[in-house]
Please model this.
Amino acid sequence: MLLLLLMASMQATWGQKIVPHMTDKQTVEYNISQLDSFSFLEGTNEEIKEEHEWVDLGLPSGTLWATCNVGANSPEEYGNHFAWGETQPKTSYNWSTYKYCKGSASTMTKYCTNSSYGTVDNKTELEPSDDAATANWGNNWQMPSLEQLKELYNSSYTTTTWTTMNGVYGRKITSKSNGNSIFLPAAGRRFDTSLNYAGSFGLYWSRSLYAGHSNNVYVLFFNSRNIFTGNDSRCYGRSVRPVRVKK
Model:
């Protein structure tokens, strides 16, 4: 109805101007004769407003990487640690507190491809509702896939250097094609109530299940010597560095 009224008034006021009054008290004038069409954006203010920065590393996939971890306000901050498939940090990380099992490593209730590890549903990629990046940052973001993690440290596309940023140890990953870079802090991992390996190891989730053992997930590991992908238990608390969802 509002759209019809606006269109009708446009015909009667073609030589006039639209003057929107913004919430910051500023005004912007538009001549009606310059207006071709308009549309309304759906969604909440939080969804429309982009609060998180990203970097284009010139990777073949076009993946855009966030500049900081979920729960962090700067690249060197550790941020929060999450169990895989959980979207909020907690005080204790083990199988007895893990959301998607019945208390043990062989009783998975979701994301399982082998009955030896629980109830089979053949889901191998996190759904958005279980993705800590999506749940905390919105639908423009998700945790990286195994392929995106491997591409990140592929020596054909990037160089990786163990260094510090504002006194925090981690890996700086620099694009060979455009020189842009991101910093991944060595934020360690959480098991039970303890934070282990902080300052010496970085351990970052992918969104990809390790199908061979459904209680494990593919993870990016790095320390001062090397960087690689492997797999490890879903119940540990690890860092999340989001990537932009491809449209």
Summary: Helices lie at 2-12, 45-48, 132-137, 146-152.
